[in-house]
Design goal:
The structure holds 4 protein chains of 4 kinds.
Chain A lengths: L1 H21 L3 H21 L3 H26 L11 H25 L5 E2 L9 H9 L3 H23 L4
Chain B lengths: L3 E2 H21 L3 H26 L3 H31 L13
Helix pairs in contact in B: 1-2, 2-3
Chain D lengths: L1 H35 L15 H11 L10 H17 L7 E6 L2 E5 L7 H11 L1 H10 L3 H32 L4 H6 L4 E2 L3 E2 L11 H14 L11 H4 L9 H26 L9 H4 L2 H16 L8 H20 L1 H30 L5 H29 L1
Antiparallel strand pairs in D: 1-2, 3-4
Helix pairs in contact in D: 1-2, 1-10, 1-14, 2-10, 3-5, 3-10, 5-6, 6-8, 6-15, 8-10, 8-15, 10-14, 12-13
The chains are: A mainly alpha, B mainly alpha, C mainly alpha, D mainly alpha.
């Protein structure tokens, strides 16, 4: 059951990710990204991170991606044009990318120490209670700083978006 | 039934991250590029959670939580910037936003 | 005992007038200016009354100004008998001239500016005189130079005034360059700049061993004096300096600042005593300047120019006295000269004021009825400068000539001849102005009381100044010269002869002057053009300097090397490389991302395969 | 294997009941609105229009499935699917009653219990924006687009006060699971005041409840916040271009969301299935009410308004009598009484929905946003602060 779920979610997430890159229209890409996020949330659940899974759906799926869709709809972003610029990226991008992924896979397979096999429910550390405890004790300062960061981001976004630029 | 090697999760994360890079490098719409960045962040989050499982500690969850929060803030500001770019340039093509070059 | 208060009063006046002068009424401005100088004068009087015998110098230390290694330069003031004379002259004459200025400047633009600068000048001059070391003296020295520049260019809207200011400033730089070199050499040789220390050190030195260094020092310092006191060959700025207002000419360019060189040499007499050759040079320069300037003065038509050349000539006299070792005589002449030369200038100023700015002698004449007080006071001054027996100039000039006669008779004869010339040209101007028929166009009138009172006081001083025997007062500092009858009689006779000839030429037989002029022909032309010294300088120094600056330094070094070679050259090289590297900075975000990808690939490769991950 | 079978049975029951509820909710709404407006409402199909929902389903199913040529087909078809499936999923974690022993198998009256149930509901409500937004965008119609934009902005805005209002009962219950939250509200103060969250300190929690309900109205795009489909401005908003079954999907989604919100409100604030009175009395309340209904029907029989009432009223009275008897059987009471209490509370809230729709006018869009950000959000924050203070102190 675990394996089945993992494989399904992995295929969905990779498929959606590839679709994100291949789709010409931003809104298709955005929906693909939501798909990735949803399947990742399931994977988080498999890994025993239920709070993160829900936060993934609420924050990413519910807030961030809605913003994206909103902006796409607002700007009526069309399909993109082909461009002759950035020749370096066009040429060197794919070889570098394959090398990168291959290197990462090699490192994961070869270099990393032996890893636990994942069994659903064998370790559930990511409850809301545990995360809350850690967040408000050990990570209290980062947490507060992050809240200030969000405040700044709100103000920045408001200023940027409402500014009248000639 | 049952046991999946943790390395699968990590490799999935690597693949997703690579896909994100591909989106960043090959896509030309600012919004799609931005979404590719989000995809990369998601891939990294998966790694965090996977390593958290390996170490049986939830610090990794905290990290991915912070990543999400920062990503939300970043999305707000980033989309505002995209909005401003569109207002000023009338384009969303990333290659046409190059006026810093002489 | 609060010596600092002496220069402080004028400084306070300077600050007040400088900052607020434009807002204050003229009355208030003059009140501040004169009050400050008067306070200073009163303070000097009170001080001297308190420390009257002044057998030992009286000094104040305020703070250490420069401390570098073993060299320590403090802000010290010192008062000895020499300083006392100078203080009295400066504050006293200065006060009179300030009072006079109220009347003279009454209708001028920049009233408060004038008094601001005057007060600043008083401050610096007092610092110069009070300074107990060379560097502080140099501060005052440069300060008065600055004020001189500012006041010469007082009518800065006129080109000739601005040019004259520049000329004074630039010519003085030549001398000051020597002066500063002299200071450096002093530091090297003595390790101190304090007069007291130098004096005691040099006293212990045998004349032979230190001769070269001390000679060098004294000659370099004398170069400064040449500039400041307008000696040949740097005298050229002083006649032009008459472009400034007449009180300035009286105060700065006759009575005080130009005598700073004389004061400096007298102050450093202990050094000059150890450098006989330098003394000889001082005497020769002084003598030559005296006769040279007097000869030019013979034919000048501008009343202020006449007195300016006379100043140069009289300063030459002073240096002549210093050069033969008669320091007290030099200072004596300095004092009397301050009285009668200030009077001459103020009288000339009164005439000019009465004639609404007319300065040319050829347009004056017969003014004795129109301005009787000016006539009388100016007459007293002329008699004083001519060395007429009984007047102040007679005593001081006699003191110098006696000393010169003792040292070298030929110098005496030249000096005596110069005295005759002096008497002649001064009375020429005097007769041209006050006798004969009026040749001008304006309606002459007597000056106001505020101008005539200082004239009268100065006339009194010119009359009796000679009886204030400065050499006796200074006998503790400088050896007292021997009075001789023969030089006294000769110089007096020369002076009287000069007056008589002038009277003959310009009062009794006015046509004689014209015929003399015609018969002298080329000599007259030479004199009228001041020996073409200015033209000579222009040709030999100014033009080459400008030419070299323009062709070599400007076109060659600045434009060719620095601009084209260094500035644009470097820019071109940078731009060249930049255009190469610019390909990298394509402005394309996707390219940048690719570079980041390549970089992270490298980092992961290195870290993963060779680094910490293993 | 037992788990799967029980789960399947529960799913089947819940699905059937839920779908029927959705269908009849619409009938109830029409009836209530009609009576508010002094009309009779559906009357023709079946007695008192009771078969009207069935007729509607047939009508929608058999209508032509129109696909406009200018739409973005994929997203056009995806949007209603997304909307309805996301709306239906949330019912799966709503508990309707306590743990019961059902023929030797102990199970919860709930499809599945999630430790982070509330977060799950929030996640679903967050994601359900896409259905509307996509529908508006893919229709390629400016009214649709405006409706979609409006409703997504509205839903994002009201999600904040909604979440903040939820947090205060969470603070009191100290749990994220619906079951635990409901269980923590069992018992009575002084023997007669139920320990429901709405009666807890501070204020009591009535403010949180009101904020939650207002935000819930906005989240479900119901009046007075139905800006997305303001027909006099936007024709019909995001579903202008939809017809037949696809339109029915949106319709169902809306009602499903209503049900979810009321269920959540019941669980969070109104003590879930816990009765209003202590057990000995409350067990007989349903029977008493059913009996009262039967009596009312019999009395009505004496003077029927319409002809067929002579036939229908006895039937209704009989049904009520049977219900009263069923509720009175002690063996069934353990199952039915909690269900009764839960359903009556949720039903009361649903009635409020309809009541509000029948009485309040629509907001203007700027008023809507203004209200959310400058009034509701600060109020929710203040309430949260007060609650946190009380929790920390007591």
């Amino acid at each position: 059951m675990d394996t089945f779920l993992f494989i399904v979610c992995a295929i969905v997430s990779v498929g959606c990710a590839v679709n994100l890159v291949l789709q010409k229209h931003p809104i298709s890409s955005a929906l693909s990204l939501i798909g990735v996020m949803g399947s990742l949330a399931v994977l988080y659940l498999l890994l025993g991170a239920e709070f993160i899974a829900m936060a993934q759906m609420i924050v990413y799926g519910g807030a961030v991606m809605v913003l994206f869709i909103f902006v796409i709809m607002l700007l009526n972003a069309g399909t993109e044009k082909t461009s002759a610029k950035s020749w370096f990226a066009q040429i060197a991008g794919f070889p570098l990318l394959s090398a990168f992924v291959a290197l990462l896979a090699f490192l994961i397979k070869v270099v990393l120490p032996p890893l636990h096999p994942v069994e659903f429910g064998s370790w559930v550390g990511g409850t809301a209670e545990a995360i809350g405890m850690l967040l408000f004790t050990k990570y209290l300062l980062p947490f507060e700083v992050t809240s200030v960061l969000i405040l700044i981001a709100i103000i920045g976004a408001v200023v940027l978006a409402r500014k009248e630029i000639d | 039934m049952g046991h999946i090697p943790l390395s699968w999760y990590l490799i999935l994360s690597a693949i997703l991250f690579g896909t994100g890079i591909a989106g960043f490098v090959y896509r030309k719409s600012v919004i799609t590029v931005f979404m590719s960045i989000e995809l990369m962040l998601n891939a990294v989050n998966l790694s965090f959670v996977a390593f958290s499982y390996q170490l049986q500690r939830i610090d990794g969850h905290i990290y991915s939580f912070f990543v999400m929060v920062v990503a939300a803030a970043e999305a707000a500001v980033g989309l505002a910037i995209i909005l401003t770019i569109f207002k000023n340039r009338g384009t969303l093509q990333i290659d046409e936003v190059d006026s810093m070059k002489l | 005992m609060n010596l600092w208060l002496i220069p402080f009063f004028p400084f306070a006046g300077f600050v007040l007038n400088g900052l607020l002068g434009k807002r204050l009424s003229k009355t208030f401005v003059s009140l501040i200016a004169i009050g400050s100088v008067a306070a200073s004068f009163a303070f000097v009087l009170a001080l001297l009354g308190k420390v009257y015998p002044l057998n030992v110098p009286f000094s104040d230390h305020y703070f250490t100004w420069i401390q570098s290694g073993s060299l320590s330069i403090g802000c010290d003031f010192v008062v000895d008998r020499l300083t006392a004379v100078m203080l009295l002259v400066i504050t006293g004459v200065g006060l009179l001239i300030h009072i006079y200025s109220i009347g003279y400047m009454a209708h001028e633009e920049g009233y408060s500016r004038f008094f601001t600068f005057m007060n600043l000048f008083m401050f610096f001059m007092l610092v110069l005189v009070l300074a107990a070391n060379l560097l502080l003296m140099f501060v005052g020295w440069e300060g008065v130079g600055l004020c001189s520049y500012l006041l010469i260019s007082f009518y800065f809207k006129e080109k000739f005034a601005a040019d004259a200011g520049n000329k004074a400033f630039i010519v003085n730089r030549v001398g000051d360059f020597g002066f500063s070199l002299g200071i450096f050499l002093t530091v090297i040789l003595f390790g101190t700049l304090d007069f007291g220390h130098i004096s005691s050190t040099v006293a212990g030195m045998p004349v032979e061993t230190s001769a070269h260094m001390v000679t060098a020092i004294t000659l370099l310092l004398f170069a400064g004096a040449i500039g400041k006191s307008a000696q040949f060959p740097l005298y050229v700025w002083l006649p032009d300096a008459m472009a400034g207002p007449t009180p300035v000419s009286a105060l700065i360019h006759a009575a005080t600042m130009v005598t700073a060189g004389v004061y400096m040499v007298a102050r450093l007499s202990f050094l000059y005593d150890h450098a006989p050759m330098a003394m000889h040079v001082v005497a020769l320069v002084g003598l030559f300047t005296a006769i040279f300037a007097a000869s030019i003065g013979l034919v000048q038509n501008d009343i202020k120019k006449v007195f300016a050349y006379s100043t140069v000539s009289q300063l030459g006299y002073m240096f002549l006295g210093l050069g033969v070792g008669a320091y007290s005589a030099g200072i004596f002449h300095l004092m009397t000269h301050a009285f009668f030369k200030a009077l001459l200038f103020l009288g000339a100023g009164s005439v000019i004021h009465g004639l609404a700015g007319e300065q040319d002698l050829r347009h004056m004449g017969g003014l004795r009825r129109a301005m009787p007080i000016t006539f009388i006071t100016l007459g007293i001054a002329s008699l004083a400068i001519s060395g007429f027996p009984g007047f102040s100039g007679f005593f001081s000039k006699d003191a110098i000539l006696s000393a010169v006669y003792e040292r070298s008779p030929w110098m005496f004869w030249v000096g005596a001849f110069t005295a005759g010339l002096t008497a002649f040209y001064v009375f020429r101007a005097f007769f041209l102005a006050f006798f004969g028929k009026y040749r001008g166009h304006h309606h002459p009138h007597e000056s106001p009381l505020v101008m005539t009172v200082p004239l009268s006081v100065l006339a009194l001083l010119s009359l009796v100044g000679g009886f204030l025997s400065v050499p006796t007062w200074l006998s503790g500092v400088y050896p007292l010269g021997e009075e001789r009858t023969f030089p006294m009689v000769v110089s007096a006779l020369c002076g009287i002869l000069g007056i008589c000839i002038a009277g003959w030429f310009y009062v009794i037989r006015p046509s004689m002057a014209e015929s003399m002029k015609a018969s002298a022909g080329p000599v007259y032309t030479l004199l009228e053009n001041k020996y073409y010294v200015d033209e000579l300088y222009a040709e030999t120094i100014v033009k080459p300097v400008i030419g070299v600056s323009r062709s070599l330094l400007w076109r060659g070094v600045d434009e060719g090397f620095i601009d084209t070679g260094l500035v644009t050259g470097i820019a071109r090289v940078v731009r060249g490389w930049g255009s190469l590297f610019r390909q990298w900075q394509s402005g394309s975000i996707r390219n940048y991302a690719t570079w980041i990808l390549a970089g992270s690939l490298l980092v992961i490769f290195v870290l993963g395969l060779f680094g910490g991950a293993r | 294997m037992n788990f799967f079978i029980v789960s399947l049975i529960k799913i089947a029951i819940v699905f059937a009941v839920f779908m029927t509820t959705l269908a009849y909710l619409q009938w109830v709404e029409r009836k209530v609105l009609a009576h508010i407006q002094s009309r009779t409402g559906p009357l023709r199909v079946g007695p008192h229009g009771l078969l009207q929902p069935l007729a509607d389903v047939f009508k929608l199913l058999t209508k032509e499935d129109l696909l406009p040529p200018y739409v973005n087909r994929f997203f056009y078809l995806l949007a209603p699917f997304l909307a309805v499936s996301l709306a239906l999923v949330s019912i799966s974690i709503i508990p309707f009653g306590p743990e019961v022993n059902f023929f030797g198998t102990r199970t919860f009256m709930q499809i599945s219990d999630l430790r982070v149930g509330i977060l799950f509901v929030l996640a679903l409500s967050a994601v359900s924006v896409y259905g509307i937004a996509l529908a508006g965008w893919s229709s390629n119609n400016k009214y649709s687009l405006l409706g979609g934009l409006r409703s997504s902005a509205q839903m994002i805005s009201y999600e904040l006060p909604l979440t903040l209002a939820i947090v205060s009962p969470l603070l009191l219950a100290n749990h994220l699971s619906f079951r635990e939250i409901a269980t923590s509200q069992a018992g009575y103060y002084l023997g007669f005041i139920p320990r429901w969250n709405i009666f807890q300190m501070p204020f009591p929690q009535i403010f949180a409840f009101i904020i939650f309900m207002i935000a819930g109205f906005a989240e479900t795009n119901r009046l007075p916040f139905d800006l997305a489909e303001a027909e006099n401005e936007l024709v019909a908003g995001f579903h202008t271009e939809y017809s037949s079954m696809k339109f029915a999907c949106f319709f169902m989604a809306e009602y499903a969301n209503m049900v979810t919100i009321t269920c959540v409100a019941t669980l969070l604030f109104l003590g879930g299935w816990h009765p209003l009175f202590p057990a000995p009395y409350s067990n007989w309340v349903p029977s008493a009410i059913a009996l009262l209904a039967a009596i009312v029907f019999f009395l009505q029989l004496r003077d029927p308004a319409r002809k067929r009432d002579r036939f229908t009223f006895p039937v209704f009275a009989l049904v009520a009598l049977v219900a009263a008897v069923l509720f009175a059987i002690p063996f069934l009471q353990t199952y039915l009484v909690p269900l009764f209490w839960f359903c009556s509370k949720a039903g009361l809230l649903l009635f409020t929905y309809i009541w509000v729709r029948g009485t309040l006018p629509r907001f203007r869009y700027d008023q809507l946003m203004h209200f959310a950000w400058t009034f509701l959000f600060p109020c929710a924050l203040l309430n949260l602060l007060a609650t946190a203070f009380c929790v920390a102190v007591f």
